[in-house]
Amino acid sequence: MISTHILDTNLGKPAAHVEVKLFHAETHELIATATTSQDGRVSDFGIREFAEGAYQLEFEIAPYFSSLKVKTFFPRVCIQFFIEDINQHYHIPLLISPFAYSTYRGS
Known about the structure:
The protein has one helix spanning 62-67, and strands at residues 2-8, 13-14, 19-24, 30-35, 41-42, 53-60, 76-83, 90-97, 100-103. By secondary structure, it is mainly beta.
């Protein structure tokens, strides 16, 4: 399973209503699209089977910051990662602010 969540570190709050797209990284084939919940989470993209390989999450953060009337330097954040074991849960958190972002392998 692949999941994610977004925390707006500038406000110290989850980033709700952010569109997140999941792609195969090599082919850039769109697999799924989801929107973060009020808690800033996408707990499930609705995909039941994955293959080993490279994937990419694209976070459309410009509309989120625009709704706050805040300018951002990064309109979209793209994170590539590799699935090595299809039986593991892959959680990819994103920390955002108007002029920076960070990520890590979550649990």
